[in-house]
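Appendix B. Chain record.
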Amino acid sequence: MDEETIRQDISRYFDFFERANIDRFSDIWNSSFNQRKRLLECYEYGIPFFQWNLQLDKDGNFENLLAELLTDIRNSFILACIGAYRPAITFLRSILELTLQFIYYYHHPVEYKWWRDGSHHIGFKELVEYVQKITAFKQLIKSDVTERLRKQYKDLSKFVHAEDVWHTQSQGKFDILRFNKANLGRWRTHYKRTLSLCNLLLISYFADELSDFPADARETILLNATKGVRTGFEKLRAASN
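Structure tokens predicted for this chain:
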């Protein structure tokens, strides 16, 4: 196809897309809004990360990582609201990876500089092995967190790679985006699970720093933490005083 034909074809595609989707997006949004209680509950799981950003990176040294992390959290939420459930879930794997990278690079400034220059990469396996060494991590969590991390990463990867029909958006039928309560529920489960796990990683690794945060910031970060994590954190805090 020549350039002019391609240009006209793309133009017609977008004209069709706009006409077909104005009402459809309105329907999706209204249907999603009817689930607002569950969506607001999910939204709360993202709030602690904005406090982590404000408290840990006041100088903006890690804005490359944290800005991307916050962007992915918002993108996942927004995509789920408009019916793009599989893309919304694929962002969650990136959130998990970025959280682990931030933990690693926070105390590895040389490697972080290399990462910014594009000359350093650390894989998921190495990152998981690194967080295993965190003392506070073991004190706060009794279950096998390493296994939880690997399992969640594996589950999210199935959506990234469209491993089977169950892990696709269209499930074998081409269609414009539409509201689907079951798919919204799948995203919701993975969203809460992933963000809870990421927040738990940060609480564990930055337990000392969290102790010195303003009370309102600390309470926001611990908002959706389990009772066991809260109790464990308070014990660590008391022991350090």
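Further analysis of this model is presented in Appendix C.
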